[in-house]
Amino acid sequence: MSATTMSRQNAEAAAFELRYRSLLEQGRVFAFPCDAAGLVDIDALDDGTRLNYFYARTVIGREFARPTVAPVALH
Asked: Within its chain, how far is the Cα of 48 from the centroid?
């Protein structure tokens, strides 16, 4: 894989978030960088973020809604 391909894939991945919306607290959302298909590079997450990601996945339907893929708003 070329550096150009890697850079393009990283840019595409950074352009989307996988969002878990809380079912219990209005406005609470966990968001994780992902690609357009919603795939999160778990190895790229720091330890705390990785733990939050696994937690959100575990409590879908009880504490968080099913995740959605959304474009990241660039500032």
From this structure: 14
Cβ-count burial 27-58 (b if 16+ within 10 Å, e if not) = eebbbbbbbeeeebeeeebeeebeebbeebee
CB atoms within 10 A of CB 67: 22
The predicted-structure confidence for 20-72, as pLDDT tens digits, reads as follows 999 999 999 999 999 999 999 999 999 999 999 999 999 999 999 999 999 99
Q: Backbone phi, then psi, for 27, in 5-degree steps?
A: 90, -15
Whether the pTM exceeds 0.85: the reply is: no
DSSP state at residue 65:
P
Instruction: Classify 68 in phi/psi space as left (phi over 0), alpha (psi -120 to 50) or beta.
Output: beta
Question: Residue 8: what residue type?
Answer: R
